[in-house]
Fold each of these.
Amino acid sequence: MKAEHGEDERAISAVSSAHRSGRAVHVARGAGRASPGGMEQVNRGISGLTWAAITLAVIGAVNWGLVGLFEFDLVAALFGRLSAISRIVYVIVGLAGLYLLYASVQLGKRARVSTMP
């Protein structure tokens, strides 16, 4: 635990000195070190919920592409036209899209805050 604390302090010190000198720094999560290059950012990764929402949004986009190009609704073909399961799938895909809208706004706020001097 003490070694991790020391690595964190060194990383914070490196980021602070780079920020004061105007250099960009990339801090890798869990790496305990700062290295020059790229934009100043903290790699936080993407949560499982976000990956699930991305997957559902892609499925929805492919379905709408099929509807637009070939008038073929894959969800309706699999589960029945406007069946309860189809409607649940549509609602879940819609909620995933709304979540991604929220997540992108939060990501934009975090990016603006982390790049301010």
Note: Confidence is low (pLDDT under 50) at residues 24-43.
Amino acid sequence: MSSNESTDERSAIECPACGKCFLTARGMKSHHLQVHDEAVVGGESRKSER
């Protein structure tokens, strides 16, 4: 098991687009914006206005 997979399921924040888990909502939001080019707002994905 890799270190990314060893996160505690009770505290893991999952990316709504790809399912990757993060320890913090901030980390997931940063990932989602950079990788999926979308901002996460209130649990929903929104395409960025770039």
Note: Residues 25-36 form the longest helix (12 residues).
Amino acid sequence: MTRMSRGGEYLRAVEILYALSYTIKMAPKSGPAPEGYFEYVVPPLEGQWWQEGIHGVDYTRKDKFCWTAMIRQPEFVDSQVYAAAVETVARKTADRCCQSPARNLYGGAVCPVYAYRQL
């Protein structure tokens, strides 16, 4: 979850989520395929937006928006596959901030998730 006023955080989160997702998708091209791998289309970005402490939505208070961004992963993505993708993206981008996405389960599906809550 992040605030709208934090310039670039949402864009950076989306970039990293897609980098992780495509790293997992293309894993067989750079080494052995993860167990259970199958060809698939990377699912779309999903997001949740809200404002804490506000009933409904107050568009005049964009700085109060919080968000969670996620991309669902196929069933074969386990902790090892996910950790390898995080390591690969961090190495290729020379950016350790890709360690930030959490690996969460939503309805049984693995999703790298970026979240920020304004306190």
Note: DSSP finds three helices and four strands in the chain.
Amino acid sequence: MLAPNEVIQIVADHYEVTADEIKGESRKSKVNLARKMVCLALKDIPRTDIINLLNKSYCLINYHIHNMQYQVDQYEHIKQSYEYIKSKIHNQMAVKLTLSQLKSLHDILNHSLSKDTKNNGETLISLHIDDINETVRKRIRNGKANINFEAKQQYAFIIWYEQNALKYRNTNPHGYMTLVDIINQLKPEYAKITSGNSARNQLPLSRGGQYE
């Protein structure tokens, strides 16, 4: 599971509010709903952690959890939001990187994306890499280290790494070591890949049989 602050960001993005609003005192209905959803999404961590994160009382945290569970059971649109948020939480992996590493990664991905793709497979991988690069850009702009990879992005990055990483070993040593650091954090999550199967064989396919 992601760190609690990352969960808050996922919920904030879903409800189009900010993490600071969720942690603050805003009583806007959309913010209040997002705050309750955070409590439900984090219900399995110690209550004291949620209390410290949101600066709310034990009783209020418990009320939010039970209230949102009731709403999930009663209202389809709340249930759909909760299921979507859970899928985002559990399909992501946090990769620990410094801001310096993020900048090196951004340089490499920019260079790679400037090249024309040769086939549909490369184009689809490139789309995922472009999404990763956009997230990296935003993290750098906001001065935030680390990055989250969704499941498909993890597979796509491993394939991209296999095809491109060595090109940067001499031209961008710091960037290359950043790629190695990322892959060392990603691969333990996919023992089936490291045991010999190609990452490409694990990438989900679209209906047309192409890699997504």
Note: The CA atoms of residues 104 and 173 lie 9 Å apart.
